[in-house]
Each structure stands twice: as C-alpha cells, then as structure tokens.
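Schema walk-through. Below, the input block comes first and the output block second. Nothing else is stored per chain. Lengths vary across the set, and this one has 263 residues.
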Amino acid sequence: MSAAIARRFEAARAVVADAARLAMSMRPPPGGPVGIQKSAQDWLTEADGAVEAFISQRMATLFPDDGFQGEEGGMTRKGGLLWVVDPIDGTSNYARGRNRWCVSLGLLEDNKPVAGIVAAPALNETYTALIGHGAHLNGTKMQASPVKDTRSAMLEMGWSNRVPKDVFMDRIGAFLDLGAMPRSGGSGALALTDVACGRLDGYLEIVINLWDVAGALPILAEAGARVSPFLEEGGLEGGASILAVAPHIAEAVATASKMKLLP
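--- output ---
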C-alpha cells in the first residue's frame, strides 16, 4: 500500500468523524419521518445534502486531484483515485430519529477498493480498513463469523422498491430453507459491516448502488468475508446485486441466493 493511500486514509478518518458529528447535530428527534419522500421507503433529509457537501469540500481541499462521487450530487470530480460517499446510509431510520444509520466513505484506486470508513455515531461505532492492514471496529481488529452451519446463521436481506416482490420472496424463502434466521435493518452499509465483524453471517441485496457499499468493500475484504463481484457486474455504472457472507457458509448461501462469489 502506497504512502499516498495511507495518508489519504488517515485524513479521511478525521473528515468522516467530523461529518458524523454534523449528522448527529442535524438528526431529527424520535417520531414520524422528517424529510422528503422520493419514492416508497426512500427518504431525503436536509442532512444528506449538508453532510455530502461537507465531505466533498474537505476532500477537495485536501486532495484536489482526486475524484469524488456522492449519492446526492453524483460524479462531481474525476480522477484515478475516487472517493465515494453515502452521507447518510439508512436515511429511513435517520429520518425517524433512530440509531441505525451511518456515514460511509470509500476510496477506489483504478476502480479497486483500497480504503473505507463507515461511522455510525449514534451507535458509537466506526469501522475502518486499509487494504493490507486489516479491518477494525473502534480500533480493534475484527474478523467475519466462524459459523459453519446455515442452521445457526443469521442472514439479512435488504429491500428495494426496484426489486419485484416475487424475487424478494424467493430469496427470503431460500434463506428460510437453509434454516437461517432472516433480518432487515434498513442500512446496507451497516449490514455489510455487520458481516465483517460477525454480527451477521450474510447480507444480500438484489439492487444496491456503489455509494452504499464503497466504504464497506475494503472492510469486508480485510475481515475475511466472501463477497460477490459487485464492481465487475455493473456496480460502477449503476445498481447491482451484492452478497457478503461468512467464509464457511459462503457456497451454500451463494447457491441459495443465486449469486456468484469472488475467489
């Protein structure tokens, strides 16, 4: 790992910490959703734009030659090194004053994930990874789950209004046939980091975007989870499917999910 990437990683950790504090200061109180509903269960809050703008401006000042892509603003700068941000992942939770949401920032070098930071300030947790240096939760090294039997597994599946109901129900049914316990928490990035630290044994989402997963991909790789070829199967250009799963049950869950896995 080059010194340039390591320097960016350390700077990004500080930027995300500041962005997370900004998001906390803007979080609505518990109650009905606050924000604009873009489509079914898809929310936009004032914090989404404010946090993305904050991170974009800080990274432009620190690394003006780097590219930048955000959920709200799209690709605003291009470069061989690309920062990808989801300012509030889990906005439906955030909009109701719930705790399960995060600020996610990933760094890609030549379209390969090399560093990631996922901060969940309401949970007092920050996940980080620099390729070749391990994955950490609040500074403590972590690994994917050692579960070897799907009947002991806890699997999450994300919901999207872009996925037909019969497809969603088919995959959930396949998880139940494995004897697994299904979950759904409303934040793709945090579900992926839960796989990385072993709180979940697998996560599947049929359609998800780059900004939802960019921060978590290096964390999964360094934690030893198995992951589907999201970037190679269209994730750089638009929505694609992702599966992240504990290594010992990876093949069984991939078969049930009708997904391929990276070697």
